[in-house]
Amino acid sequence: MKNLLKLLPVLALLACDENYPYRIGTFPEGQVTNLDQLNSEFDEMNSNYVSPYFTANLNFVFSSNATSKGQDFNLDARQLIFNQSKETFEITHSAASVLGQNHVMRNQLFEINTDCDERGPYSIASDIQNFHFMLYSQDCDGISKILLNEFESKSQFEGYRAENFQVRLLGQNSNEMYPSFYGEKFLKGADFVSQGNPEKLLFSSDLDGVFNIYEADIPSGKKGVEFLKDRAEKDIKKLSINTSSNDHMPFVYGDMLVFSSDRQGGLGGYDLYYSFKMGEGWSEPVNFGPSINSPQDEYRPVVSDHPEFSNRVMIFSSNRPGGLGGFDLYYVGVPRFYLRL
């Protein structure tokens, strides 16, 4: 049960008193809901959660081109709160700007955002006090490369220090995007003590003309950030689940890999798929089906658990009809397909 105790309370019920009529909530499965408090008439996508605490307030980072009126993408942050009604069991959500309340997040994004596109954020918990790490991709050179922002928040009077490192992976003239760590003892979203140390890094690249998902081994005893900052050539290989189509935007939560693909057999455009870690490889990917996917594009899924919810929640973006405009962010409940005991 040790991994169950480590599950991040990403999204919390805001009623825990003894008169509450139920202890376990459920995110609606097969019912995709627009996160309209986050979306605009422009594009919102590529999400990441940054809340390692037992709180209902989720610091949620995503890419948006709303500020530029449809031009370049920047990283934005909101405080996302979910509520479940005592009477109807309906889940509602609200969102507030986190940048005016969290000076660390505000200053870190100020250092990251440029006139180029910043996409696919991925936060890393640090074992060093006052250090914050964010991975993302940026296309200032005409192709997307993965960068690591190392941010040190100091005292109120000393300010902060920030530095960007370009991560060397394939080292070729190709797009590299969507980094995600995983490992048997690693759980994305927890604080450093309980998240464990990752063993591998996944990312996607179009080195061969279409996007494939690649895997890089992290040497034993080396921390994830140390591995990323190391300029030495890395041992990298393609996952066996790749196809001749685009397999893209991977994210791993525990043993579960979710990603987007336009492979044959989908509903149209990019669909969302899931796979599980099996020994040295991954299980055959399964399409999430028509209750989640649409004939349009579904991008960058992220998944998490909450010990007070009976299932998992998945957040993704889509340009399906009925949104506020362009790509919108959505959420849906998905079963806990597998839980290591």
- Number of extended strands: 21
What is the domain total for the residues?
1
- Number of continuous helical runs: 4
**Helix and strand run:** HEEEEEHEEEEEHEEHEEEEEEEEE
Helix content: under 10%
Instruction: Assign the CATH topology.
Output: Tachylectin-2, Chain A
CATH architecture: 5 Propeller
Q: Kindly report the average pLDDT value.
A: 85
Question: Which key features would you list for this structure?
Answer:
341 residues, mainly beta, Tachylectin-2, Chain A, 4-stranded antiparallel beta sheet, globular, disordered N terminus
Per-chain topology:
Elements: H1 2-5, E1 33-34, E2 44-49, E3 57-64, E4 74-84, E5 91-97, H2 103-112, E6 118-124, E7 131-138, E8 145-153, E9 160-166, E10 176-182, H3 192-195, E11 200-205, E12 212-217, H4 224-229, E13 236-238, E14 247-253, E15 256-261, E16 271-278, E17 281-282, E18 286-287, E19 298-304, E20 312-318, E21 328-334
Antiparallel strand pairs: 1-21, 2-3, 3-4, 4-5, 6-7, 7-8, 8-9, 10-11, 11-12, 12-13, 14-15, 15-16, 16-17, 16-18, 19-20, 20-21
